[in-house]
Amino acid sequence: MHELPFSQACENNKHIILEILERHLKDGDQVLELAGGTGQHCVHFAANLPNLHWQSSDIPSNVDNLNLRLADAKLANLPAAITIDVNHPVWSSDRPTAIFSANSLHIMSADSVENFFKGIGEALQADGTLIVYGPFKYAGEFTSESNEGFDRWLKDRDPASGVRDFERVSKLATKANLTLIEDNAMPANNQLLVWKKSK
Ligand SMILES: C[S@@+](CC[C@H](N)C(=O)[O-])C[C@H]1O[C@@H](n2cnc3c(N)ncnc32)[C@H](O)[C@@H]1O
Predict the structure, then answer these.
(1) Domain presence at residue 1
(2) Which of 16, 36, 80, 155 could pair with 56 in a Cys bridge, judged by C-beta atoms 3.0 to 4.6 Å apart?
(3) Could you list the residue range(s) of the whole structural domain that residue 173 is in?
(4) CB atoms within 10 A of CB 108
(5) Domains identified in the chain, total number
(6) What is the rounded distance in angstroms from the CA atom of residue 77 to the CA atom of residue 41?
């Protein structure tokens, strides 16, 4: 029996993220999650939003780990996670009505962040919703000292990673036909950004 992957941060933030998802997602939505991680988010969201279909995904090296938790949860609206690396030119043949991703942009390289938005521009249905959770810098400034320390820690680990500039991400989103409709300040110096794709 494998131990399930676990992140304390996911336990702490999943309730408040769900409150915002409830405002933006609707029954029948086909949600694609990028960078599903431990699966704690998708299990919590799919269990609490049973009338939508939640397809989680992660890169090949993490998808089996993610699937341990999904198999344990056995939810009808949460199939096994699929493999998606945002750098791969084609993600899947499905066209989701919503895309969710948490704590992924600061882990990826700047080129991967570009591919993340390029892929979303191609995959997301017209009028679809993109919801992204994580830390951001605004006008070059961190929103807290702890985020600045987090950025240093990330870069020591992987110089290509780091807390992303909101303005840069906004430009990439605009190029992908997305319009920002909400920027929610969240606990622990994170943001939850919501975009709508044009019709
Ligand atoms: C810090 S974890 C966040 C996981 C989870 N979403 C959470 O909030 O706890 C970063 C995730 O990004 C994924 N990731 C890294 N590079 C990626 C890529 N090129 N394409 C898709 N996912 C990627 C990792 O496998 C990992 O699951």
Answers:
(1) no
(2) 36
(3) 8-197
(4) 24
(5) 1
(6) 14
